[in-house]
UniProtKB/TrEMBL annotation, chain A:
Keywords: Cell membrane, Membrane, Transmembrane, Transmembrane helix, Transport. Belongs to the binding-protein-dependent transport system permease family. CysTW subfamily. This is ABC transporter permease. It comes from Roseibium polysiphoniae. InterPro entries: Bact_Polyamine_Transport, MetI-like, MetI-like_sf.
Automatic annotation (TrEMBL), chain B:
Keywords: Cell membrane, Membrane, Transmembrane, Transmembrane helix, Transport. It is a multi-pass membrane protein. This is ABC transporter permease subunit. It comes from Roseibium polysiphoniae. CDD domains: TM_PBP2.
Length: 273, 308
């Protein structure tokens, strides 16, 4: 068998990644366009970015979005990690298949259904809609993503370390925080980041569950996109893309470093015995 | 470790709480809302806040329940059958989702294959490159295509400049633009599970086939493809199910005659403010999607069992 990539494989990778990245690259390039026409190049300019920071409504929407994303991601991470522990550790219990069904269904459920059903719930509960309802809605679907990410981390986890601690009299809650959590931490962090960006992105569910005074950034972008393509939108999108890209790369580098460190520690610990 | 044998362990309070908290959250905010959607789909539209009748009050007890029950009507469902807008929307959503899934498979397979056959040290980076667009806003990625596809957009400018075409192609606001949007947005969902199953494939099988004189295309057809079917199935479900209810892509890239049920529901809810009919649309959509969702979950469970 030939070793090394074949001509066919390299071509398909190059074409595939060009397809995935070219539209985003074009979007970023045209955010620096002098001309108002988004598709005709009129020279380099950063004026659309300057304009953005003068747009009070947009900044308000960005602030609301960040608050919702931070809160919902944090709560979703706690709930999702608990759910992952239940899925991996709790064995059989009444309602287990219902439980795992409720974790996996939101991952593929169309957003219009999730949004509509949550809205009707809030109306039935006579709950004023706004910041908190969007936050709860985002927490609900994000916790399922967190659960899946953390679950995959827990499956490959050596339970004997935790059992050893418990045999030595360490209470379960303590052994969770001292042993399990540090080991699954890269998964928990990835889950939090995923929940954060999902909330940052969401248009459909937020549109259904929001109320007066809680317009999120995607809702703002969407209403402007409907009016046409403008360089300002390209500029906001560029900022979001850059933030998310740096966040993801930084997190993956950090978790890799931590993993190497941990593997090193474990080897050292077992070697010493 | 002999205690471990008993299958129903006595649970401590802590481990009960561990199950109860996420369980209750999902029951309240995921499961219960579906019953409310179903209930409202049986009511009538009204000029009120909230805009539907009758409201059903648990405090009124059994008589209230019976009264409410007699007030329920299946009128919205009859309406959905009689007005051909709805069943045409369902059919065309399923069709658009199916065609896009197949295109995504054709586009995604070579990418996943190329990744799985690339040198080991490249793979984490390639995997990262596939995942990264998934983290980038869906809305932004769909928006990016508007500037490319529209009549005076970049694609037409390029093709005109190259002399390939004499007049701009009309792609924006057609079904073709919706296909492109779905394939582009959901590609990572297909590539990831497919890559996972292709990467596990035992290379020595292919080497054996080659040693025995099997040409590469035949080895692919007889060995690689059948062994990658679990990944293909998982990936296709992950694209197909959400694509059926897609709203953003048909709304931004599709035209006025692109019928998709997610968009129909949105219009019914936000423009016509007919909550009962949009609830009925959601109930039927859910019933249609329950089949692929359950199939998908069984498939995933089988995979998980095979691995352990």
């Amino acid at each position: 068998m030939r070793s090394g990539p074949t001509w066919f494989n390299v071509t398909s990778l190059v074409l595939g990644f060009t397809f995935l990245y070219l539209p985003i690259v074009i979007l970023v390039i045209f955010s620096f366009n002098e001309s108002r026409l988004v598709t005709v190049w009129g020279g380099f300019s950063t004026k659309w970015y300057v304009e953005l920071f003068k747009n009070k409504q947009l900044l308000d929407a960005a602030w609301v979005t960040l608050k919702v994303a931070f809160l919902s991601a944090s709560i979703a991470t706690v709930l999702g990690t608990m759910a992952a522990l239940v899925l991996v550790r709790s064995g059989r219990f009444v309602g287990r298949s219902l439980f795992s069904g409720m974790i996996f269904a939101p991952l593929v459920m169309p957003e219009v259904i999730l949004g509509l059903s949550l809205l009707l719930l809030f109306v039935a509960m006579d709950q004023a809609r706004g910041f908190w309802t969007v936050m709860i809605a985002h927490t609900t679907f994000a916790m399922c993503y967190v659960a899946v990410v953390v679950q995959s981390r827990l499956v490959g986890f050596d339970k004997s370390i935790e059992e050893a601690a418990e045999d030595l009299g360490c209470p379960p809650v303590r052994s969770f925080f001292l042993i399990t959590l540090p080991i699954i931490f890269p998964g928990v962090l990835a889950g939090w980041m995923l929940a954060f960006t999902l909330s940052l992105d969401d248009l459909v569910i937020a549109s259904f569950t929001t109320g007066p005074g809680a317009t999120t950034l995607p809702m703002k972008i969407y209403s402007q996109v409907r009016l046409g393509v403008t360089p300002e939108i390209n500029a906001i999108c560029t900022i979001l893309v850059v933030l998310v890209t740096f966040g993801v790369i930084a997190a993956s580098l950090a978790s890799k470093r931590q993993e190497l460190q941990r593997a090193h520690d474990e080897r050292a610990a077992f070697g010493a015995n | 470790m002999s205690q471990k044998k008993s299958q129903a362990p006595k649970r401590s309070l802590g481990s009960k709480a561990l199950i109860a908290v996420p369980f209750l959250w999902l029951v309240i905010f995921f499961l219960a809302p579906f019953f409310i959607v179903f209930k409202i789909s049986l009511s009538e539209v009204a000029v009120a806040i909230p805009p539907y009748l009758p409201t059903f009050d648990l405090a009124e007890g059994w008589t209230g329940f019976v009264e409410a029950l007699s007030g329920f009507s299946f009128e919205n469902y009859i309406w959905l059958i009689e007005d051909d807008l709805y069943w045409k929307s369902y059919l065309s959503s399923a069709q658009i989702a199916l065609i896009s899934t197949l295109i995504t498979l054709v586009v995604g397979y070579p990418i996943a294959y190329g990744m799985a056959r690339s040198p080991k040290e490249w793979r984490p980076t390639l995997l990262m490159l596939v995942i990264l667009p998934f983290w980038t806003s869906f809305l932004i990625r769909v928006y990016a295509w508007i500037g490319i596809l529209k009549n005076e957009g970049l694609l037409n400018q390029l093709l005109l400049a190259l002399g390939v075409i004499n007049e701009p192609l009309v792609i924006m606001n057609t079904d073709l633009a919706v296909y492109i949007g779905i394939v582009y947005s959901y590609l990572p969902f297909l590539v990831l599970p497919l890559y996972a199953s292709l990467e596990k494939l035992d290379i020595s099988l292919l080497e054996a086939a080659e040693d025995l004189g099997c040409p590469p295309w035949k080895a692919f057809w007889k060995i690689t493809l059948p062994l990658s079917i679990p990944g293909v199935v998982a990936g296709c479900f992950l694209v197909f199910i959400p694509a059926v209810g897609e709203f953003v892509i048909p709304d931004l890239l599709g035209g006025s005659n692109t019928l998709m049920i997610g968009k129909t529901l949105w219009v019914e809810f936000f423009s016509n403010r007919d909550w009962p009919v949009s609830s009925a649309v959601a109930v039927i959509l859910l019933l249609i999607l329950v089949v692929p969702i359950v199939l998908f979950q069984n498939h995933q469970q089988k995979l998980a069992e095979m691995q352990s």
